[in-house]
Task: structure prediction
Amino acid sequence: MTARAWRQLTKAEKKEHLEQGIDGVIDELERRGRPPTEWEVAKLIGAIDSTRRGLFNYAATQLADVFATNVAEKPWPNSETKANAPINVEISELRAELDRLKFEAVAEHPIFG
Result:
Protein backbone atom coordinates (compact mmCIF):
# COMPACT_ATOMS: atom_id res chain seq x y z
CA MET A 1 0.00 0.00 0.00
CA THR A 2 1.31 3.43 -0.85
CA ALA A 3 1.81 6.08 1.82
CA ARG A 4 -0.84 8.22 0.15
CA ALA A 5 -3.39 5.38 0.22
CA TRP A 6 -2.53 4.67 3.87
CA ARG A 7 -3.11 8.30 4.88
CA GLN A 8 -6.52 8.27 3.21
CA LEU A 9 -7.76 5.30 5.25
CA THR A 10 -10.04 5.88 8.22
CA LYS A 11 -8.92 4.71 11.65
CA ALA A 12 -11.22 1.71 11.37
CA GLU A 13 -9.78 0.82 7.96
CA LYS A 14 -6.22 1.12 9.27
CA LYS A 15 -7.08 -1.14 12.21
CA GLU A 16 -8.65 -3.71 9.88
CA HIS A 17 -5.67 -3.56 7.50
CA LEU A 18 -3.26 -4.11 10.40
CA GLU A 19 -5.34 -6.97 11.79
CA GLN A 20 -5.20 -8.67 8.39
CA GLY A 21 -1.44 -8.13 8.25
CA ILE A 22 -0.96 -9.53 11.75
CA ASP A 23 -3.08 -12.53 10.79
CA GLY A 24 -0.88 -13.10 7.74
CA VAL A 25 2.29 -12.92 9.83
CA ILE A 26 0.89 -15.46 12.30
CA ASP A 27 -0.02 -17.73 9.37
CA GLU A 28 3.56 -17.41 8.08
CA LEU A 29 4.96 -18.29 11.51
CA GLU A 30 2.81 -21.43 11.49
CA ARG A 31 4.03 -22.37 7.98
CA ARG A 32 7.66 -22.05 9.05
CA GLY A 33 7.17 -24.94 11.47
CA ARG A 34 9.45 -23.64 14.21
CA PRO A 35 8.85 -21.64 17.34
CA PRO A 36 8.91 -17.88 16.74
CA THR A 37 12.08 -16.07 17.76
CA GLU A 38 12.22 -13.50 20.51
CA TRP A 39 12.51 -10.76 17.86
CA GLU A 40 9.48 -11.99 15.91
CA VAL A 41 7.33 -12.19 19.04
CA ALA A 42 8.47 -8.77 20.28
CA LYS A 43 7.63 -7.14 16.94
CA LEU A 44 4.31 -8.95 16.60
CA ILE A 45 3.22 -8.09 20.14
CA GLY A 46 4.37 -4.52 19.47
CA ALA A 47 2.17 -4.39 16.37
CA ILE A 48 -0.83 -5.76 18.25
CA ASP A 49 -0.35 -3.41 21.20
CA SER A 50 0.22 -0.35 19.00
CA THR A 51 -2.88 -1.16 16.95
CA ARG A 52 -4.87 -1.49 20.18
CA ARG A 53 -3.65 1.93 21.32
CA GLY A 54 -4.41 3.62 17.99
CA LEU A 55 -0.75 4.10 17.05
CA PHE A 56 -1.34 2.79 13.55
CA ASN A 57 1.81 4.09 11.85
CA TYR A 58 3.99 2.63 14.59
CA ALA A 59 2.06 -0.65 14.44
CA ALA A 60 2.67 -0.86 10.69
CA THR A 61 6.40 -0.34 11.26
CA GLN A 62 6.50 -3.02 13.95
CA LEU A 63 4.68 -5.42 11.64
CA ALA A 64 7.04 -4.70 8.74
CA ASP A 65 10.03 -5.57 10.96
CA VAL A 66 8.82 -9.00 12.14
CA PHE A 67 10.83 -10.97 9.60
CA ALA A 68 13.92 -8.75 9.44
CA THR A 69 16.71 -11.32 9.22
CA ASN A 70 19.85 -9.56 10.39
CA VAL A 71 20.99 -6.61 12.43
CA ALA A 72 21.47 -4.44 9.33
CA GLU A 73 17.75 -4.80 8.55
CA LYS A 74 16.73 -3.94 12.10
CA PRO A 75 16.66 -0.16 12.42
CA TRP A 76 17.33 0.02 16.16
CA PRO A 77 18.18 -3.41 17.48
CA ASN A 78 17.40 -3.80 21.14
CA SER A 79 20.42 -5.23 22.89
CA GLU A 80 18.08 -7.18 25.16
CA THR A 81 16.25 -8.84 22.25
CA LYS A 82 18.15 -11.68 20.67
CA ALA A 83 17.27 -11.93 17.00
CA ASN A 84 17.33 -15.71 16.64
CA ALA A 85 16.65 -16.82 20.20
CA PRO A 86 13.59 -19.06 20.48
CA ILE A 87 11.00 -17.90 22.97
CA ASN A 88 8.41 -19.86 24.88
CA VAL A 89 5.33 -18.33 23.26
CA GLU A 90 2.86 -20.49 21.41
CA ILE A 91 1.47 -19.30 18.10
CA SER A 92 -1.98 -20.03 19.50
CA GLU A 93 -1.33 -17.38 22.17
CA LEU A 94 -0.48 -14.82 19.50
CA ARG A 95 -3.62 -15.72 17.56
CA ALA A 96 -5.74 -15.41 20.73
CA GLU A 97 -4.32 -11.93 21.31
CA LEU A 98 -5.21 -10.99 17.72
CA ASP A 99 -8.73 -12.35 18.21
CA ARG A 100 -9.15 -10.13 21.29
CA LEU A 101 -7.91 -7.13 19.30
CA LYS A 102 -10.46 -7.75 16.55
CA PHE A 103 -13.32 -7.36 19.04
CA GLU A 104 -12.02 -4.12 20.53
CA ALA A 105 -13.27 -0.76 19.36
CA VAL A 106 -10.94 1.49 17.40
CA ALA A 107 -9.06 3.86 19.70
CA GLU A 108 -10.63 7.26 19.08
CA HIS A 109 -7.45 9.03 20.19
CA PRO A 110 -3.96 7.54 20.34
CA ILE A 111 -2.91 6.26 23.75
CA PHE A 112 0.74 7.02 24.47
CA GLY A 113 2.17 5.16 27.45
Remarks:
- The CA atoms of residues 35 and 86 lie 6 Å apart.
- The longest helix spans residues 11-32.
- Residues 10-103 form one domain.
- The helical segments are 3-8, 11-32, 38-52, 56-64, 91-103.
